[in-house]
Amino acid sequence: MNEINKLTRFRTDIPEMSERARIAGALRLREEFTRPAGRVRVPLRRVALPAGTLAVVLAGLLGYQTFGPAGQPPTASAAVILEAAANTVDQHGYPHPRSDQYIYREVLHVIGNGEKTLVRSWESADGTRAGEIRWSGYLTNTVAIPPYHEGDGLSHAPYTRLAELPTDPDELLRILRNDPQVLATTPHPAPNADQITPDLRTWDVIRDLVGKVPGPQQAALFRAAAKLPGLTRVDQATDAAGRSGVGIAMADPRLGLVELLFDKESHRFLGEPVLSGRDKDAIEFNDTVVRTAVVDKVGQLP
User: Are 248 and 76 in contact (CB under 8 A)?
Assistant: First the structure.
């Protein structure tokens, strides 16, 4: 069990986190407890948290900064970029695994101070077997991916299930809006919890899926995203690999300004920066999918 699992056991009012949220939370938590105060550095794994401190840490972890409401229509430029991105998706160059194989992914995760973590994952193609996630670099850890259960929602769905999603954006958006992660009614402890709207939860699911689905479904996700209110365009943004692009973003009171990033010329999908709630010009977290492949077993490299 990792540190985020341990912490959330103390707070039953915190909604289930996706793997992306757990990675981001673990990195932020580790950064807070290893930040130097004078010459003192406190190793995370040796800290015993009193109840009051725990509440403060969880509040910081979930990022209770306040942003503008997400109820406004998307800007025309945001919709144009997403449509261009959909048109440039490779409809054929994606994996075709057997049901007994695994989808291998490498994701480069960078936090605001430049520290990097390489996240390697092996996910059962059909979700019937356990997989694994290994983090190396700034944060080192290994966690198991349990077999998939239908109630887990699309963010945890296996590749074969994602490949069955419709490519019609309206039908896909209907499915996304009815995902368990979007319909979750667990009270959120943030003071600005009324801003965590179904549209924002839908944006969360879309961001969870864009780097995992086959090409036809990725194109449909971009077109479905263009229908969400509250999207804005960020003209100057950089992915985890240092490539500049244009971001399409939604304000998230838990994290910051969360984006999908695209190349300015080709509109190819690059990654997912999160701009800090404390400084909207600063990167808080940044993810880029480095490689996706099909392998036969957990631990095997392509």
Answer: no
Q: Is the pTM of this model over 0.90?
A: no
Contact 162, 213 (CB under 8 A): yes
Distance (Å, rounded) from C-alpha 186 to C-alpha 107? 30
Q: Provide Rg for the chain, Cα atoms.
A: 19
State CA 167 to chain mean position distance. Answer: 21
The answer to whether 286 touches 228, Cβ cutoff 8 Å, is: no
Determine the residue type at 271: G
Question: Encoding tokens for residue 288?
Answer: 């880029």
Instruction: Give the tens place of pLDDT for each residue, 25-68.
Output: 544 444 443 333 332 222 222 222 233 322 333 333 333 333 33
The owner of tokens 């490498």 is: 106
- Cα–Cα–Cα angle for 291, 250, 243, nearest 5°? 40
Question: Which residue, among 95, 121, 119, has the nearest Cα to 107 in the 3D structure?
Answer: 119
